[in-house]
Specification:
- The complex is a heterodimer of chains A (454) and B (1081).
- Chain A has helices at residues 2-27, 33-59, 74-85, 87-98, 108-128, 155-192, 195-204, 212-245, 257-283, 292-323, 326-337, 341-353, 361-364, 367-394, 409-432, 438-444.
- The radius of gyration of chain A is 24 Å and the shape is globular.
- With 454 residues, chain A is mainly α.
- Chain B has 33 helices and 39 strands.
- In chain B, the strands form 13 sheets. In chain B, strands 20-25-22-24-23-26 form a 6-stranded mixed beta barrel.
- The longest helix of chain B has 22 residues, at 751-772.
- The chains are: A mainly alpha (454), B alpha/beta (1081).
- Chains A and B meet through helix 2, helix 6 and helix 11 of A and helix 3, helix 23, strand 30, helix 28 and helix 29 of B.
Chain lengths: 454, 1081
């Protein structure tokens, strides 16, 4: 009995430690200096983006490098890249939840937050890439007296629904999962007498009391949402890939795109999660929660998805040759050896060769190396989208219209701006929200299963 | 905007067209078999062809767009946008217009129905050659010019199976833009620029009148009978007259003087010619009768339904120095230095007579020898069915020899007519200006009246007109613009545009053609005849002057009839019988006796008219500057054309700045390397580098292009030898619409990879172009009746009849339900056999459809807006290439890929099969353009029409066609098959049925030919045919059934409503170039 008491006391202490280790980040009276510095940089980047948007909207798409031949370039590249990054969040939250991958609990909260912020960045591009963004709401079906109705054969319409569904589900999932932890924050602030914060977190925690019934319903709802979100992991990027796959442009018109895009999205999503979490867990002393084996598991996923992507690259080339279609064949030869060859080899280098390092356990256990490799993967995945979009458009059917693409400062500025927005939001989240799913981590701690020994 | 002048019509009758229808070669890379290529950059894979953008990070201009300051107007513009954001719904689809007052008409002007355009016959003169036109006016403002299909020379009578048709050139199409040019001169200036008034000028003229004997007049060439009659009167009063044109056909006139002892004008009858030889003559673009020649050539070019009878088509031989469109159309082309034109002509004449050829190395070059032998053989066999035409550049002796050849061929009367030259005794233009210059420099000219022109800019450089003008006490310049010359004269008087003043002209065949104004002068301004009349002291209006001159000349026909028809009947001179006199050609110079191999220092400089500005006079015409050159596809610049192998041996490449030195003078300009150009020749394109053209073409500080007149002397007026060329080391990027960013700067300058890049391009082209451009020889077509263009090439022919919308149920399949068309099914057919690539369709479309101009920087950013473009492809070897022009507009696919991807349904299919664009619904995702295999969609990347909102440019808005929406930024646009013309034709037909003027039901389909698209109407060769596929007998239906017809990219199953007709060549079997057989020499 005593030992049991002692054991449960030890467990309680361990649980408390988790709560404390997560909550101190928000409770610390002054933010970490590095946090302030990075936030400052992010805000400057965001300001560049705001200025780029201002110039873009007031002057026209002509401030970009897009042309009549390369009608989409950085705009849609960035869109697909950000959407792809968003994928890891749902995958970690929903799919790994359903498959009972307990290591997910250490990273799911921040992965979900990242998803939401990435989708926000992504959403900017379809809106701003339109020539008249003030009319973009015409894509939303709504009763009106202008006899307008969206054209549902267009994959862009499917995008509207896929991305908005994804954003809604992700936000719900993230927020709902956060409710018990927000209540924890509320209680801690209330105990310390910080009324304002207690009220804010109290409002956000929707009256969570931690009763058994609430936990029961919470678990049910979480399961249902996970079930609902799981198809989204596969559907969103499949739908995004339809933008290209259903068109007739050689290099876009490819049935392999849905799985290829999904694999790529998960690949890039994991890379981005660990680009953020490796420094974060170091900075905020979370190594005992986000453990090395968690990072290692993610490396294995990146290795697997990276090879899927590599297989897709190879398959595309094979099919281009096998099809006998000279336009198709040319498109792929041109990708690798045409004027955009450098972007193609950047893509292959970063996405196919770099993940091969993850075969080595030593590398999978060395966070600094993983961090660097993840950055490469992020770059490579951006170039994958660029290669698909720009090189195919620049050399399509009629040679008289062949062209080249170069970005302008406003293309770059908007991209920088979204990175700034992403980091700004992420840093704010890190400072003010429970960045780790406290309750879930506790649920998978060895101490939580102490009783099962009997 | 004041409406007063708009309703004040000086014209007589509306034209009722509505009723009656209106160096060492070895270094060059091998050419792929059956190889096609767009440019030398592509063919030559070496690292040499690299664009230096002076280390700039971004393409020129890519980042310049938003530089406009936040003016008050812009501020409100932005406010409008933010309000649209805020209110969303409130801003949808509507824009706020500026407040303006309108004055409604109390009584409708006679003969005018609001909203209905009217057509008036008028005429236009360029370089002393008249062109008969029909001008379209909307509520009193002219908005479009077209050929007059009833004019005897313009239309040439009705040939069985073809409509009456009168094409126009790109220059004519663009001439209307000057009418509304805000940069035109708006008031007289006195004393070198001081503002003045018309009254003051009249007073000054009155001062000149008593001393007419000391007055010299320097005039542009004019074919106007009224002008000539006034001129005769002035000369009678002692005025000394000089005539100058920088681009002149004097050599031909002087040549006939040598050959016949009198000045005659040869007019070829190409519709009756089986063999046509163009000796350094661009008969399709650079000839006074180019429009007529183009059409006649096309009519005898048709293997089926042509004027030579079924199974026969003409054969064109071109011997030329530069690569012109005539060379591109030719079945056989021989590149020769211009100076060798005489050698070739003499050799051909000798061969025909059976005499020994002149001694020249060039004739011993195997290619020349063989060409000459085969050509002479064919001409001998085709006596009475052949004609030789020598070009403007060739000296009089060549024209004389050509006259002898034509005589030997029995051409006069059969394939060639001679008419009296109306101005036979005039000295040549180069001579006239040189003489005047001498007199001016010598102080013998007290008063000089300059009628039009711009001698300070375009006179031969050795005349030094600007300096000589300083010795003239009083000088007056009548000009539409305050140009380089106006800035130097004491007086400048604005000249009325031809649509603002009465006049007359004669077309090249001598038919007197009326010039009827459609609008009162926008900026005041006098016409030349009004000014001459003032000098004579008879202050008469233009109309009176023309009427008086016509009465004097005894022209028959009622005035009203003449004005209505646009020409004076029975004024066409009858052909004369020309008898040769004894003429001995001069001895060949040493250079002519040598071959084509020359060293630097012996290069030949050839002056070439500009496709953009002609001789410089259209320099303020943005439409023309932005219309790519016929052959180089460069916009917004002139340049030096250097033959490909010559460029290689001199170390030049595209965009290299070069220094051309000739006769002790030099000029720097960028170089364009032209395949197929004669070895060791430099083509200098005229008409650039204006310093007082206007805000478009150049002001003192900034000009478009380079002034090549700086090296043009009176002696070397057409071409000059002994030139030296060096690269200056600098580079200048020419805005080429077809070679956007071929070679990329930056990240990878690894030569190995670079080579692969261009190699990849070249291979990709070589593979696909036989499918895009289908070709066949006349012989094969005659021998193999089963040949079908759509089965000839392409790799998806197992799709059987994919793309054949005429044959439902036969092959083809679609995921989408195919539309069942009732009523009209509009379609187009474009004949690649007769398309000369003259750009007229592009400019006509621009005028008809309010297509904006984007400027040089945006062209370099690949944002040009043309709805119909002409793709140009080379094939064969670099030294002896062939060229195909392919006009590409919206193909109006029945299964349009653009429609499926538009999220807001802004582009949809009409019940008549048109692919329509709803501009105000478009949100600008540009997905449609990505999905268009033909890349014909054009996006408004910026607000291209912004400048027309500026108060001083507002007048330009009068030119807009009110039937076509002016597009705002952020929306997509493209060819609409001139849907406004279709709708207007329907409305007209319905109105006619209702008023009893037309039998049949109100909703009866339109007859074939009732709707003409702008490009079709303007096409000089009738290569574009538009019509209704539901009408099985329509011309377009028949052409779609033709075995030469094929759809572009049939494997995409877009089912285009436009089909191309395969290019048919008619090579002489004895002279088939290896390239035409699919290999190379």
């Amino acid at each position: 009995m005593d030992s049991h008491h002692a054991e449960s006391g030890k467990a309680r202490e361990a649980f408390r430690a988790v709560t404390r280790d997560v909550a101190w980040i928000a409770e610390a009276p002054k933010p970490h200096k590095l946090w302030v510095a990075v936030l400052g940089i992010a805000l400057v980047m965001f300001a560049i983006g705001v200025y780029s948007i201002y110039v873009l909207v007031t002057t026209g798409i002509g401030v970009w490098g897009n042309s009549n031949t390369v009608c989409w370039a950085w705009d849609i590249t960035n869109f697909v890249w950000w959407i792809g990054i968003g994928h890891a969040g749902t995958l970690i939250s929903a799919v790994l939840y359903l498959t009972r991958q307990q290591w997910r609990t250490s990273i799911n909260r921040s992965a979900e937050a990242m998803t939401i912020f990435a989708v926000m960045c992504a959403g900017l591009f379809p809106l701003l890439h339109t020539g008249r963004p003030w009319f973009a709401w015409w894509m939303i079906p709504h009763p009106n007296d202008m006899q307008m109705w969206p054209q549902f054969r267009s994959p862009l319409m499917w995008d509207v629904f896929a991305v908005s569904t994804y954003a809604t589900t992700s936000i719900l999932f993230w927020y709902m999962g956060m409710v018990p932890d927000l209540a924890t924050f509320r209680d801690r602030y209330a105990a310390r007498g910080e009324r304002l914060r207690a009220i804010i977190y109290g409002t956000l925690s929707l009256g969570w009391r931690g009763s058994a019934r609430q936990w029961h319903r919470y678990e049910r709802a979480y399961l249902i949402l996970a079930g609902l979100a799981t198809p989204l992991v596969f559907s969103v990027h499949s739908v995004v890939s339809f933008d290209f796959a259903t068109s007739q442009l050689p290099g876009w018109h490819t049935t392999i795109f849905p799985p290829y895009f999904v694999a790529g999205a998960i690949f890039s999503g994991f890379a981005m999660v660990f680009t953020l979490l490796i420094p974060a867990r170091h900075l905020f002393n979370l190594k005992h929660i986000i453990k090395d084996e968690h990072v290692e598991a993610a490396c294995k996923i990146m290795l697997a998805t990276g090879m899927m992507v590599g297989l897709a690259y190879g398959t595309e080339f094979f099919i281009a040759w096998y099809s006998g279609n000279l336009f198709e064949k040319f498109t792929f030869i041109n990708r690798a050896f045409g004027p955009f060859w450098w972007s193609y080899f950047l893509m292959v280098g970063c996405n196919v060769l770099i993940p091969q390092f993850f075969w080595f356990k030593k590398i999978r256990r060395t966070p600094v190396v993983i961090f660097v490799l993840c950055i490469f993967i992020n770059i490579g995945m951006w170039f994958e989208r660029f290669v698909i979009i720009a090189t195919s458009l620049a050399r399509s059917f009629l040679p008289a219209q062949w062209s080249y693409y170069e970005p302008t400062r406003y293309d770059v500025g908007l991209f920088i701006g979204t990175i700034g927005l992403f980091f700004t939001l992420f840093l704010l989240f890190f400072r003010y929200a429970p960045i780790i799913a406290i309750s879930e981590v506790k649920g998978v701690m060895p101490e939580a299963h102490a009783g099962k020994k009997h | 905007m004041s409406h007063d002048h708009l309703h004040d019509h000086p014209h007589d009758h509306p034209h009722d067209h509505d009723d009656d229808d209106g160096a060492p070669l070895a270094d060059l890379p091998p050419t792929p078999v059956h190889g096609y290529w767009r440019s030398l950059r592509e063919l030559d894979g070496t690292a040499a062809f690299q664009v230096n953008r002076n280390g700039k990070e971004f393409p020129d201009g890519a980042d310049q767009a938003p530089k406009d300051p936040l003016s008050r107007r812009n501020f409100f513009h932005l406010m409008g946008a933010s309000m649209a954001f805020a209110g969303l719904g409130a801003g949808a689809g509507c824009q706020r217009y500026e407040k303006e007052e309108i004055v409604p008409l109390a009584r409708r002007p006679e003969d005018q129905t609001p909203g209905v355009t009217q057509q008036y016959a008028t005429g236009f003169e360029l370089g002393g050659v008249g062109h008969a036109l029909i001008a379209t006016a909307f509520e009193g403002r002219p908005i479009k010019l077209d050929g007059n299909p009833e004019h005897p020379f313009a239309s040439g009578g009705v040939v069985k199976g073809t409509e009456r048709h009168a094409g126009t050139s790109a220059l004519t199409q663009a001439a209307i833009l000057h009418l509304y040019d805000p940069d035109r001169s708006q008031a007289p200036t006195a004393e070198h620029g001081a503002g003045s008034s018309m009254e003051a000028f009249r007073a000054a003229l009155a001062g000149i009148k008593p001393t007419l004997g000391q007055l010299h007049v320097l005039s542009e060439a004019s074919s106007s009978p009224t002008f000539r009659s006034l001129r005769a009167k002035l000369i009678g009063q002692g005025v000394t007259w000089h005539e100058y044109e920088p681009l002149s056909w004097d050599n031909e006139r002087l040549g006939t003087q040598l050959a016949f002892g009198r000045a005659l004008r040869p007019i070829a009858k190409l519709d009756k010619s089986e063999t046509i030889v163009a000796l350094d003559a661009d008969i399709f673009l650079d000839h006074p009768a180019a429009m007529r020649y183009s059409r006649d050539f096309a009519r005898s070019r048709r293997l089926e339904g042509g004027t030579l009878g079924d199974g026969k088509m003409n054969r064109l031989y071109a011997i030329e120095s530069l690569f012109t469109n005539t060379g591109a159309m030719a079945d056989h082309r021989l590149a020769l230095r211009a100076e060798h034109g005489l050698v070739f002509a003499l050799a051909l004449a000798a061969k025909l007579r059976g005499e020994p050829a002149p001694a020249s190395e060039i004739l011993k070059e195997p290619k020349v020898e063989r060409f000459l032998a085969v050509l002479a053989d064919e001409l001998k066999q085709n006596k009475g069915k052949a004609v030789v035409i020598a070009g403007r550049r060739q000296p009089p002796e060549v024209h004389a020899v050509v006259a002898q050849i034509n005589d030997a061929l029995g051409a006069p009367g059969a394939t060639l007519d001679y008419i009296e030259d109306p101005d036979g005794n005039r000295p040549s233009h180069a001579r006239a200006i040189a003489d005047l210059g001498k007199a001016m420099a010598g102080g013998q000219v007290g008063t000089l009246l300059i009628l039009g022109g711009n001698p300070a800019y375009d006179a031969p450089v050795d005349v030094d007109f600007a300096a000589a003008l300083k010795n003239v006490k009083t000088s007056i310049h009548l000009s539409e613009y305050r140009n380089e010359t106006s800035l130097l004269t004491t007086w400048h008087v604005p000249r009325a545009h031809f649509l603002e003043a009465w006049g007359d002209v004669t077309t090249w065949d001598g038919t007197v053609t009326m010039v009827q104004p459609l609008i009162a002068p926008l900026y005041g301004g006098l016409s030349a005849i009004e000014l001459l009349s003032l000098l004579l002291g008879t202050e008469k209006g233009g109309q009176e002057l023309v009427a008086a001159a016509h009465a004097e000349l005894g022209y028959t026909g009622a005035w009203r009839q003449n004005v209505h028809d646009g020409f004076v009947a029975n004024t066409t001179p009858q052909p004369v019988t020309a008898t040769l006199v004894d003429f001995k050609a001069p001895a060949l110079t040493a250079s002519q006796q040598s071959g084509s191999m020359k060293s630097n220092g012996e290069l030949e400089v050839i002056f070439h008219p500009s496709s953009f500005t002609y001789d410089g006079r259209f320099a303020n015409n943005a439409w023309l500057w932005e219309t790519p050159d016929f052959m180089t596809k460069v916009t917004w610049d002139n340049y030096a054309l250097v033959g490909a192998s010559t460029a290689q041996s001199l170390g030049l490449e595209n965009d290299t700045m070069i220094k051309v030195q000739v006769g002790g003078r030099e000029i720097e300009l960028p170089c364009y390397t032209m395949p197929g150009q004669a070895k060791n020749t430099i083509g200098l394109v005229l008409g650039g580098g204006r310093t007082a053209a206007g805000r478009v073409g150049g002001t003192g500080k900034k000009s478009v292009g380079w002034n090549t007149y700086k090296v043009r002397t009176a002696a070397g007026f057409d071409f000059a030898g002994k030139a030296t060329v060096h690269a200056t080391g600098a580079a200048y990027t020419l805005a080429n619409i077809q070679e956007h960013w071929d070679i990329r700067r930056g990240l990878g300058n690894l030569p190995q990879i670079k080579h692969d890049e261009t190699h990849v391009n070249a291979e990709g082209l070589a593979e696909r172009l036989p499918e895009l451009i289908r070709e066949q020889t006349a012989r094969t077509l005659n021998e193999n009746r089963n040949w079908r263009a759509e089965e000839s090439e392409g790799f998806f022919n197992d799709l059987d009849n994919a793309g054949n919308h005429d044959r439902p149920g036969e092959g083809g399949f679609s995921l989408f339900k195919e539309k069942d068309y009732q009523g009209h099914r509009w379609a187009m057919a474009i004949d690649l056999t007769t398309c000369t690539g003259c750009n007229a369709c592009t400019v006509a479309c621009q005028a008809e459809n309010n297509i904006p101009v984007v400027g040089r920087n945006e062209v370099m950013n690949n944002r040009e807006m043309s709805w119909i473009r002409i793709d140009r492809y080379f094939s064969g070897s670099v030294e002896d290439p062939q060229v195909v022009h392919q006009p590409v507009g919206c193909q109006h696919c029945e299964q349009a890929p653009c429609e499926q991807v538009c999220p807001v349904g802004a582009t949809t299919h009409s019940d008549e099969g048109l692919n329509d664009m709803a501009y105000n619904r478009c949100i600008g995702t540009r997905y449609c353009a990505n999905n268009c295999p033909y890349k014909v969609r054009r996006f408004n990347f910026l607000d291209w029409n912004k400048e027309w909102r500026d108060a001083r440019n507002k007048v330009r808005r009068l030119l807009f066609n009110p039937d076509v929406t002016v597009r705002m930024r952020g929306v997509m646009e493209k060819c609409s098959f001139c849907v406004q013309r279709i709708q207007n034709a329907k409305i007209r037909a319905k109105a006619q049925v209702r008023s009893g003027q037309r039998p049949g039901a109100v909703n009866a389909p339109l007859a074939d030919g009732e709707v003409e698209t702008a490009c079709q109407q303007v096409c000089p060769t009738e290569a574009i045919v538009f019509g209704d596929l539901s009408d099985k007998d329509s011309r377009v239906s028949r052409l779609h059934e033709d075995r030469r017809s094929y759809a572009l990219l049939p494997e995409t199953y877009t089912k285009p409503r436009n089909r191309f007709l395969a290019r048919v060549r008619n090579p002489n079997p004895n002279l088939v170039a290896a390239s035409q057989l699919g290999g190379h020499e």
